[in-house]
Design a protein that fits this description.
415 residues; alpha+beta; 6-stranded mixed β-sheet; 4-stranded antiparallel β-sheet; 18 strands; globular
Length: 415
């Protein structure tokens, strides 16, 4: 019996993705667990593996197709001896498959033979489906200018109403209608428009939602980093890899969560979720945007193991090769811009986490010691952004004090 290849829920926060590429061609034999295709989600490229063995009989969704929803039919896997009739039977009753009719009788081709490009399948009439085919931009403009989409003739593919149709209708509307916005100035010849990637759209959506719906509050402290920098210098004298300052910070943050578990929480509509482990997300800048792979149980791992894990996760993040479980969840995020010369900043919380730590550069500045003497010291400014729904100010202050104590007495980070 032919099996439908569906898009699985590849990430907890992804409702779909872009079919990046097929790793098999029509007619290729497929073993159980073998990669079939790659899906680009909001944060990574994820492989889809075969759940059954067989032959890839038909590719329903071509490579490059965007906005493929979870559970959509991507292709059909045939068992031995099955032909095109088995494909049509498997696709029958599945509207999301929309499989195009084939004129060729032999669907399964010998391995290595290029697949023909399928012709577009029949598209149901929009009126009979009870809705108007229109682009999202056309719908938004029609609502803005109080125009009835059903009364417009679409000039797009399959009669789809597009922007130019709405704008033309707005110009024909009575003078009392809402005026068209002023035309944008012509672009300079050297300017270019770069379409948003799925990751960039996800970052914009999630951070906008966080800033609009999460009540942030901020606590800032200066940490004396002289002892930490001296310890880091000693750590590299044996010829082995030297941990970065950020590696120390990640372990100190995890240990502080163990000291003050009231910060190791997430807000949910019906409850406050207390996390079992101190899982620290590390902000990594990539060409596509910011990715936050997670070091699980960072309080229980030695510093060397944390350093190696962060380096490996960061390399795969930049190559879009993280697995969903490696960037989903987490207790708290560390965002360090000190290496870029930033002294101080406040970061936006990464939901569903309840806090994020923004770390600035260690600078030599004057500081008054307990005896009143003014001395030069390396000070590192950190700012904790916390979700006031889940975390009280006193809890955040105690966590920040525990973190600073470890930064200023870094031997505790090694214990």
């Amino acid at each position: 019996m032919a099996n439908l290849i569906r898009l699985p829920a590849v990430a907890a926060d992804a409702s779909g993705g872009t079919l990046h590429q097929w790793l098999k061609r029509e007619g290729d034999a497929v073993a159980v667990g073998e990669p079939l295709a790659e899906i680009e989600t909001e944060k990574a490229i994820v492989e889809i593996n075969a759940e059954q063995a067989g032959v890839l009989g038909r590719i329903v969704v071509p490579a490059g197709a965007a906005s493929v929803p979870v559970n959509a039919v991507l292709g059909v896997l045939l068992e031995a001896g099955e032909d095109a009739a088995a494909i049509e039977a498997a696709l029958a009753g599945h509207a999301d498959a929309a499989a195009p009719a084939r004129t060729d009788s032999a669907v399964a081709r010998p391995a290595g033979t290029p697949a023909d490009t399928p012709a577009p399948g029949p598209v149901p009439d929009a009126a009979s489906a009870g809705r108007v085919l229109a682009s999202p931009l056309a719908r938004r403009l029609a609502a803005q200018w109080s125009l009835d989409l059903a009364a417009l003739a679409g000039s797009g593919p399959r009669g789809r109403v597009v922007r130019r149709d709405v704008e033309a209708a707005a110009r024909r509307a009575p003078a009392s209608a809402a005026p068209l916005p002023a035309a944008a100035p012509a672009a300079r010849p050297d300017e270019q428009r770069v379409p948003h990637t799925g990751m960039r759209r996800a970052i914009a959506r999630r951070l906008s939602e966080s800033k609009q719906t999460v009540p942030h509050f901020y606590l800032t402290v200066d940490c004396r980093a002289d002892a930490l920098l001296a310890l880091r210098a000693q750590a590299g004298q044996d010829g082995g890899p030297r941990p970065t300052v950020n590696d120390f910070i990640v372990r100190a943050a995890a240990q502080a969560l163990r000291d003050e578990p009231g910060l190791n929480v997430s807000w949910q509509d019906d409850a406050l979720l207390h996390h079992a482990g101190a899982d620290i997300s590390v902000a990594v800048a990539t060409d596509g945007g910011l990715v936050t792979p997670i070091v699980r149980d960072a309080d229980a791992k030695p510093l060397g193991a944390i350093a190696a894990e962060i380096a490996e996760l960061a390399a795969r993040a930049r190559a879009n090769r993280l697995r969903p479980e490696e960037f989903t969840g987490g207790s708290l995020t560390v965002s360090n811009l000190g290496m870029h010369g930033i002294d101080q900043f406040a970061a936006i919380i990464n939901p569903p986490q309840a806090a994020i730590l923004a770390v600035g550069a260690a600078r030599r500045r004057p500081v008054a010691d307990e005896d009143g003497e003014i001395r030069a010291a390396m000070l590192m400014t950190v700012t904790l952004s916390a979700d006031h729904r889940a975390v009280d100010g006193a809890v955040a202050a105690r966590w920040l004090a525990a973190f600073r104590a470890r930064i200023e007495h870094p031997v505790r980070i090694l214990l």
